[in-house]
Write a structure and sequence with these properties.
Blueprint (H helix, E strand, L loop, with lengths): L4 E6 L2 H11 L16 E4 L4 E6 L4 H6 L5 E5 H7 L4 E5 L5 E8 H4 L9 E6 L2 H10 L3 E6 L6 H4 L5 E6 L3 H5 L2 E10 L1 E5 L1 H6 L1 H14 L1
Parallel strand pairs: 1-3, 1-4, 7-8, 7-9
Antiparallel strand pairs: 2-3, 4-11, 5-11, 6-9, 6-10
Keywords: Amino-acid biosynthesis, ATP-binding, Cytoplasm, Glycosyltransferase, Histidine biosynthesis, Nucleotide-binding, Transferase
Protein name: ATP phosphoribosyltransferase
EC number: 2.4.2.17
Length: 212
């Protein structure tokens, strides 16, 4: 089994786009799109194994070598800062990591004058680094659910969150104030696997580069 390549992939839209992308380089993993509750799928002919995991767990499985490769959003990589090789931007799953605040606050707010603020976010590491680099003291409240709720109930003045179309912000009376980063989906590789399975992994990376 050591000659298998194991890939950790999260469920949802990333899974669908990943299956399509791998199909374009001749790696057939359409079985992953079925309604099975299996978490590990194997293709003995192609010597490929796939693990279905939570997006936030993908870097951990790859860093510790349980998976050779992983597919995950750049936001997760920025937040976790794992020791991984990140060779490829897969160019899908685009969104922006933004600072947002209530529209009525934004009408008279000046971000350049911020000195001490309170932020609610799923990304405390990214938010803390961002504001520290700007010399702004920040109190960070970590949430796991709907971040947009925090300013509406007075938990925080502002939020740091991912924004795609911006519709959820608008419906909750929030506006974008600053862009922290543009986010896309990335291919990540375990550093030891890149040495021990160099030929196969390099081939996958080259083939993906050609179709992206």
């Amino acid at each position: 089994m050591n000659d298998f390549i194991t890939i950790a992939i999260p469920k949802g839209r990333i899974l669908e786009e990943s299956v399509d992308l791998f199909g374009r380089i001749g790696i057939d993993c359409r079985e992953l799109l079925g309604d099975s509750r299996k978490l590990i799928f194997e293709n003995p002919l192609q010597k490929m194994r796939y693990m279905i995991v939570r997006a936030t767990d993908v870097p951990t499985y790859v860093e510790y070598g349980s998976a050779d490769l992983g597919i995950v959003g750049k936001d997760t990589l920025m937040e976790q800062d794992k020791d991984l090789y990140e060779p490829l931007d897969l160019k899908f799953g685009y969104c922006r990591m933004m600072v947002a605040e209530p529209a009525n606050l934004a009408t008279h707010d000046d971000p350049s004058a911020w000195s001490h603020i309170r932020i609610a976010t799923k990304y405390p590491h990214v938010a803390g680094n961002y504001f520290a680099a700007k010399g702004i003291q920040v109190e960070i409240i970590k949430l796991y659910g709907s971040i947009e709720l925090a300013p509406l109930v007075g938990l925080s003045e502002r939020i740091v969150d991912l924004v795609s179309t911006g519709e959820t912000l608008r419906q909750n009376g929030l506006v974008e104030v600053e862009t922290i980063a543009e986010i896309t989906t990335r291919l990540i590789v375990n550093r030891a696997s890149l040495k021990t399975k160099h030929e196969r992994i390099s081939g996958i990376i080259r083939n993906l580069e050609q179709v992206i």
